[in-house]
Amino acid sequence: MGGDGDAPAFKRILLKLSGEALMGSLDYGTDPERLQDVAAQIKKVHDRGVEIGIVLGAGNIYRGIAGAASGMDRATADYMGMLAIVLNALQLQDALEKHGVHTRVQSALHVQEVAEPYIRRRAMRHLEKGRVVIFAAGTGNPFFSSDTAAALRGVEIHAEVLLMAKNGVEGVYTADPREDPEAMLIDEISHMEAVSRRLRVMDLTALTLCMENNLPIYVFNMDDERNIDRIVCGERVGTIIATTT
Length: 245
Known about the structure:
Blueprint: E1 12-17, H1 32-46, E2 51-56, H2 64-69, H3 74-98, E3 103-107, E4 116-117, H4 120-128, E5 132-136, H5 146-156, E6 161-166, E7 172-173, E8 185-186, E9 188-189, H6 191-196, H7 204-212, E10 217-221, H8 227-232, E11 239-241
Parallel strand pairs: 1-2, 1-6, 2-5, 3-4, 3-5, 6-10, 9-11
Antiparallel strand pairs: 7-8, 10-11
Helix pairs in contact: 1-3, 5-7
């Protein structure tokens, strides 16, 4: 189970973390202890020689779609969400560097005082040099979710797998386990079936992008601090969404 001497099953991964993954037991914001725990999990995988790209959400700070629902212009609300993601990226960078992990933040919005602009080739060079790259500000466009940003960046950097961290659920279920006690965990499913069944894995745009580019997705519970390392070591954890040819 993810022993220190195990060779990683993947050379390059894209890790998608929701903003809520940084909240811990708080109702809002970032729990410093939770942030350090997440950084330690990433460091363990990094120490295996795995190249890591990370995309964050901002649900702990601001939800663009919630702002739009309250009457704000959707594009404006989404841009505010992208800026909130930059805040999360900077604090995760700080936590990782306190663990001795060289980290770069690349932003899809220009905030050159605090982050590099997103340049695909530069990002890949950072990864090759063993630096963790945090992709901030989503895709840089309104109307696209951070899930879509994760799928897009994963495809762009030629990640072998997209790791979708969830909070409090073990993977993908036949129904919402919080609402339906009969909901069953799905061990493995194809992209197409996940799309056709409209399972709540990620938004349809992101799922379709992964399907068209044959990018496997592992959906797993972030609450178990061993899970990222277990997946990287080749264990079957949570739900695998993959299209076999």
